[in-house]
What does this fold into?
Amino acid sequence: MRDLDKANEILNTIGLTNRDNQGYRLRSDGKQRLIITLSVTRGSFVNFESVGELLVNHWKAIGLNIHLIVEERSLFSTRTATNKHQINMWVTGGSENPWTYPLFTVPAEGSRFAPYVGLWYNHKGRRGIPPTGDLKRLLEIFEEGSSLPKASRTELGKELWRIHLDNLYVIGTVGRSPANNGIVVVKNYFRNVPNLAPNSAGLQTPGIARPDQFFIDRKQINN
It folds into this structure.
């Protein structure tokens, strides 16, 4: 829910009370306009550039000046992994498993919100930066929870989500969007194709749709 009053209250609480003559919030030291950079990539399956433009306009309503930067995808990935972004935008892509979200434990990806901590974890402390505070606790929960039976993981899972809610390392914009899955057109005679097959690396797309069960109904080809 879009709650401008609550958003303004939160920003005022953390000291961003002063604004310039255009209504943009000043830094906490009051000297200059606060500028936040949002990096997105072009040429992907989601139009991140347009979504970013919407966010720029939405955040302007609460006095935040957002600079949208569009990067080529390989550059975007490199800058993400080396902690060069202030804020960036991507999809969950199957990483919504509560024990790994968002990608602390995938060597190929690292962690999008704490890349050097992900690097530290995946390289057993030889690279990156060791976690502290709640980031450290997230990894402790992952290590502990992975070895517990399912029934014993519930309380740890609740603690994990409380940490994410308190810190908002990742802010969702659109839930259950078809942008990630895309739209598939299936011939009438091509059978056993499910109506919904999530596009998720963790589910091994398109394996989740059980393509070994697809078949062509030759009696319907001309219909």
User: Anything to note?
Assistant: The helical segments are 4-13, 48-60, 73-81, 115-122, 133-146, 154-167, 178-181. The chain is about 30% helix and 10% strand. Residues 94 and 202 are 5 Å apart (CA to CA). The chain has a mean pLDDT of 85.
